[in-house]
Amino acid sequence: MKLVYLDHNATTPVASEVLEAMHPYFREDFYNPSSIYSPAQKVREKVEEARLKVARLLNAEPSEIVFTSGGTEANNQAIIGGARANRKKGNHIITSAIEHHAVLDTCLRLEKEGFEVTVLPVDQYGTVSPESLQKAIKPETVLVSIMYANNEVGTVQDIKTLAHIARQNGSLFHTDAVQAVGKIKVDVKELGIDMLSLSAHKFYGPKGIGCLYIKKGVKVESLLTGGGQENKMRAGTENTPGIIGLGRAAEFILENREEMEKRIRELEELLRQGIKDRIPDVIFTGHPENRVPGCVSVCFKYIEGESMLLLLDQQGIMASSGSACSSKSLKASHVLLAMGITPEIAHGSLRLSLGKDTKREDIEYVLEVLPGVVEKLRAMSPLYRRGDG
Ligand SMILES: *Cc1c(COP(=O)(O)O)cnc(C)c1O
């Protein structure tokens, strides 16, 4: 059976260049980079080389990069560490309603520790307005965390403007850029931000490795206690194969992103147009222009996204309904609800996310299969009558 993977926002396959770069660090060069002997010191050099590559991708300094176990840890470290280190200044945190749970739930956890949390609303496209941040920010605000690109609908925020408002107020600005890095240009200096999270497995690197960019001079309390690795910011023996894989993936993105973006946007357009032409009663969600390449988020009226995923899976098509985590529960996506989409419509959501290896034939196959799947489910739906709406 033909298999078509259209769930790149959940994870991506490791690029062959990346796998090749990682390989020696499992066996031949397995040494602990903190050891004294020269083979271990060579591994240390490779770790530092990877740090330089990640820094280059973000236009940061190598000393501003702290390797973590991925996006979730980076978000936890930024928010908890940033809030705790600046507690003297105040106890107010601002985030948005469409964040990943690694940000939302971390902020809610701080609420239990006595912080006050403001969750900013978004408009119908999933955009946070600078005015709403301006209104919510106050002298006690220690931290603002707003995601760069949304994982469900792909909407990109005006981070530069939002960060400027935070800076004017003396508040730290963090962005979860897990869905932006690898897809669009990300320049921490141009954005004027204090912290940024990224994750390797969202851009053709391995799972279990990511980093937090922390601007020089920004005070953050480290979450883990133990060894003095990562300039005392992240205790624990370094994940050397992962770090070297992340470095290689960063280099891969620097070299190939623009060309990939162009190709993926073309295929995305083909998919969008194809859905529009073939299926009635569809609502595309996300911003019409300001969005990352490759994310097609759509709601089909009168049906359940979950059932759609099962029927698509039977035909070899791998996709998602809302985020991978929330698809286990039958709750409608908090992102779509925050955008003002009704629960009934949000339940019929499908996310198709394209990647560097997606082919025109894959899109054509989806366009062949999807109309039948939607029709079959609608025929069984009590909400749907042929000829309506
Ligand atoms: C995947 C993802 C995360 C979590 O990253 P992990 O490396 O899987 O922990 C965080 N935020 C966003 C927006 C994501 O898409």
TrEMBL record:
Record-level GO BP terms: [2Fe-2S] cluster assembly; amino acid metabolic process
Coiled coil (residue ranges): 250-277
GO molecular function, one term: metal ion binding
Sequence intervals crossing the membrane: none
Pathway the protein contributes to: Cofactor biosynthesis; iron-sulfur cluster biosynthesis
N6-(pyridoxal phosphate)lysine carried by residues: K202
InterPro entries for this protein: Aminotrans_V_dom (IPR000192), Aminotrans_V_PyrdxlP_BS (IPR020578), Cys_deSase_IscS (IPR010240), Cys_deSase_NifS_bac/arc (IPR017772), Cysteine_dSase (IPR016454), PyrdxlP-dep_Trfase (IPR015424), PyrdxlP-dep_Trfase_major (IPR015421), PyrdxlP-dep_Trfase_small (IPR015422)
Binding site for [2Fe-2S] cluster: C325
Reactions this protein catalyses: (sulfur carrier)-H + L-cysteine = (sulfur carrier)-SH + L-alanine
Complex and partners: Homodimer. Forms a heterotetramer with IscU, interacts with other sulfur acceptors.
Protein name listed in UniProt: Cysteine desulfurase IscS
Species whose genome carries this gene: Thermosyntropha lipolytica DSM 11003
